[in-house]
Recover the amino acids of this structure.
């Protein structure tokens, strides 16, 4: 049997070239989109936990803003690829809606806390894992409290984290994170919209935009008579979307 060494050599060259191309693309991709690496600074555990908490909170806010105040919407309408929560709902004709989130500020605070708690717990686990090769670690249970305030979101982490080495004790127990965001205002405006829809079966978004020029409110009525409200903060470019169904009319009216 005669082996064509030229063909075999050509195949080998093509394989090598293909590998070079693949490796080249991988290197370019990593240079453009480098993997995120969170470095633990053993002298600044508070900074590490604050950074972790900020990222988790921003993730929660992104989900809440486009889903109507729920991380995992319960009672929602599908709109532009997202499930958007009904903040006010009534399926009966002619009747105004019933407020589904009468304590919207408190509800959003709880949603954020529930979302970030396991993430922050993982960050403390990673912090301990990194430091325990050089320190003795003592830590307490963790309690997270989230508060929406005007213009910002505050997260407080009640937890004691202590490092001990050669008689030197470092005690960390003041973990806080403040994030600039208009979520509090969004919740208040959304509540005002819901209350007016309940009372008048309408909300004057144009009048509100004239009186409060920092915000732009848009209303869209779907083919199924669901109303989608979008609130935009023109200074921060942040927005909030929610749905309601109220005072619907039968087909033909």
């Amino acid at each position: 049997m005669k082996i064509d060494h030229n063909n075999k050599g050509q195949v080998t060259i093509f394989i090598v070239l293909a590998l070079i191309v693949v490796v080249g693309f991988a290197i370019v991709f990593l240079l453009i989109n480098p993997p995120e690496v969170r470095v633990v600074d053993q002298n600044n555990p508070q900074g590490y936990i604050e950074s972790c908490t900020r990222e988790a909170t921003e993730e929660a806010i992104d989900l809440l803003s486009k889903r109507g105040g729920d991380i995992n919407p319960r009672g929602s309408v599908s709109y532009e690829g997202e499930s958007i929560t009904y903040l006010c709902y009534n399926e009966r004709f002619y009747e105004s809606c019933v407020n589904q989130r009468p304590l919207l500020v408190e509800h959003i605070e709880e949603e954020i806390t529930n979302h970030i708690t396991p993430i922050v717990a993982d960050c403390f686990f990673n912090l301990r894992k990194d430091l325990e090769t050089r320190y003795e670690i003592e830590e307490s249970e963790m309690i997270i409290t989230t508060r929406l305030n005007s213009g910002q979101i505050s997260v407080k982490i009640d937890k004691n984290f202590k490092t001990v080495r050669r008689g030197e004790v470092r005690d960390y127990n003041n973990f806080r994170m403040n994030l600039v965001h208009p979520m509090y205002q969004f919740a208040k405006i959304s509540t005002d919209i819901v209350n007016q829809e309940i009372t008048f079966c309408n909300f004057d978004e144009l009048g509100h935009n004239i009186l409060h020029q920092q915000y732009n409110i848009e209303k869209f009525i779907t083919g199924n008579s669901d109303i989608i409200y979008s609130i935009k903060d023109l200074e921060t470019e942040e927005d909030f979307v929610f749905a309601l169904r109220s005072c619907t009319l039968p087909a033909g009216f």
Q: What stands out?
A: Residues 45-245 form one domain. The two ends are 87 Å apart (CA to CA). The chain has a mean pLDDT of 89. Helices lie at 5-32, 45-67, 104-131, 183-200, 205-211.
